[in-house]
Specification:
Length: about 375
C-alpha cells in the first residue's frame, strides 16, 4: 500500500507494462515509497524517486522498463548476495583493498565496504553513472573516480579486483583482462573476479540480455549494431547499442593465458560434475528453446529479412550445441564435462583471474 492508501501490486508492476505506466503516471512518489519499503529497503527513498523520474522520462514506452527498474534498484541486494557467496567460497574481502572496475551505480563497491574492506575504489567512464554512485554511496568510505583503465594509468595494486557485467562493453576485452591483471596485487590470495552473461546460454540466445532481441547475442558486433539501429524504434527503446563483443568460455581462458594469468571458473569441476543430469537432458533443453525462439521471432517487430537473419544464427547455434552434447555423451570425461558446462550451461560466467603461482589449497576450483 502506498502512502495515499492506494494498494500497489508489485507483482503485477513487474509483469504488466501498462500497469507500471499507470502507476508512474498516477503518483511516482507513492510508487517510490512502496518500492523502497517493500522491495528495495537498501536504497534511499530519494534515490528510488529519482530513478523513477528517469524511467518515466526516458523509458516509459519501452516494454523493458520493469527490467531496467529491477536492474538499477535491485543491484545493491544482488551485489551484497554475490559478495557473500564469493567470500563464503574462500575469497576474502574484509581487511583488503578492493577496486570495482566499471562500478556503475556503486552497488558492488558499497557491498565491499559493508563487508569490511580496508579500502574501496570504484571507477567508471560514465559521469552519469558516477553521479548515481555518489548518491548511493554517500556517507560511506567508498572512493569514486572517473577513469578509463584502458586509456589511463592507475599505478596501484589491489587485493581484490572486481569487474562485473563490463567485459562485453569494452572494444578490446583481451586488453581489459591484461589491465585487470596489472591491477592485481601480489599478496597471497589476491584475485580478480570477472562476471558477465554467458553468450551461449539458452536464456541469452532467447533474449539478448540488454535488448531482448532473440538470437542477437550470436551476431558479430557490426551486424548486431546495424540490426539494432534499424529496429530500435520498433522495440520502443532509446538505448544505443553499447555491446562490443560476446566471447565464449574458451576464448576468455585464452585471453587470460596470453596475459600471463590463470583463469578458472568458481566452482570448477565440482559444479560441472553436479550438472551432469542437466547436460544429459540437453535434447529437451534445446528442443524447448527451438520452439520458444520460433515463437518469439514470429512475434517480434521484425521484417522478414531481419527475422531470417536471426533465424539463420539461431539454427546454426542449435545444430552446434546438439552436436557438442552428442559428442560429450560418447566421451563424458571430466575435461569435456567442464568445458561443455561452462560453454552452454553456466549463467552467469563467474571467472577468477589469479597469478599462475597461486596454489589452490582449499579446492575452490576442483
Amino acid at each position: 500500500m502506498g502512502e495515499s492508501g492506494v494498494v500497489i501490486d508489485l507483482g503485477r508492476l513487474f509483469a504488466d507494462h501498462e500497469y507500471l505506466k499507470q502507476a508512474l503516471a498516477a503518483d511516482s512518489l507513492q510508487l517510490a515509497a512502496a518500492l523502497q519499503a517493500r522491495r528495495y529497503p537498501m536504497i534511499p527513498r530519494e534515490f528510488v524517486a529519482q530513478y523513477l523520474e528517469h524511467l518515466k522520462r526516458e523509458h516509459l514506452e519501452n516494454p523493458q522498463a520493469a527490467r531496467y527498474l529491477e536492474s538499477e534498484l535491485g543491484a545493491p541486494g544482488r551485489q551484497a548476495q554475490f559478495l557473500g557467496w564469493l567470500t563464503a567460497a574462500g575469497f576474502r574481502i574484509a581487511g583488503r583493498s578492493c577496486i570495482d572496475v566499471g562500478c556503475n551505480n556503486g552497488s558492488l563497491a558499497l557491498a565491499c565496504a559493508a563487508a569490511g574492506a580496508r579500502r574501496v575504489l570504484g571507477v567508471d567512464v560514465s559521469a552519469p553513472r558516477l553521479a548515481s554512485a555518489r548518491e548511493l554511496c554517500r556517507g560511506t568510505p567508498v572512493e569514486l573516480r572517473k577513469l578509463d583503465i584502458l586509456e589511463q594509468d592507475l599505478p596501484e595494486e589491489f587485493d581484490a579486483v572486481l569487474c562485473t557485467d563490463v567485459l562485453e562493453h569494452v572494444p578490446d576485452p583481451a586488453r581489459m583482462i591484461r589491465r585487470l591483471g596489472e591491477l592485481l596485487g601480489r599478496r597471497r590470495g589476491s584475485f580478480a573476479c570477472v562476471t558477465l552473461f554467458n553468450k551461449l546460454h539458452p536464456e541469452s540466445v532467447l533474449s539478448e540480455p540488454h535488448y531482448d532481441v532473440p538470437g542477437m547475442v550470436l551476431l558479430e558486433h557490426g551486424q548486431a549494431s546495424r540490426l539494432w539501429g534499424r529496429i530500435r524504434e520498433r522495440y520502443r527503446s532509446k538505448l544505443d547499442y553499447e555491446v562490443f563483443h560476446w566471447h565464449t568460455w574458451d576464448e576468455y581462458a585464452e585471453m587470460a593465458r596470453r596475459a600471463g594469468l590463470r583463469l578458472r571458473a568458481l566452482g570448477g569441476r565440482r559444479r560441472a560434475r553436479a550438472a551432469r543430469r542437466e547436460l544429459r537432458e540437453f535434447r529437451r533443453t534445446f528442443d524447448e528453446l527451438e520452439v520458444k525462439l520460433g515463437q518469439k521471432l514470429e512475434a517480434a517487430p521484425l521484417t522478414a529479412e531481419e527475422r531470417e537473419e536471426l533465424r539463420d544464427a539461431t539454427t546454426g547455434y542449435l545444430a552446434q550445441a546438439r552436436l557438442e552434447h552428442e559428442a560429450w555423451l560418447r566421451d563424458p570425461s571430466p575435461d569435456r564435462t567442464h568445458r561443455l558446462y561452462y560453454t552452454y550451461h553456466a549463467q552467469p560466467l563467474v571467472m577468477i583471474l589469479q597469478r599462475p603461482g597461486w596454489i589452490d589449497r582449499v579446492g575452490l576450483f576442483r
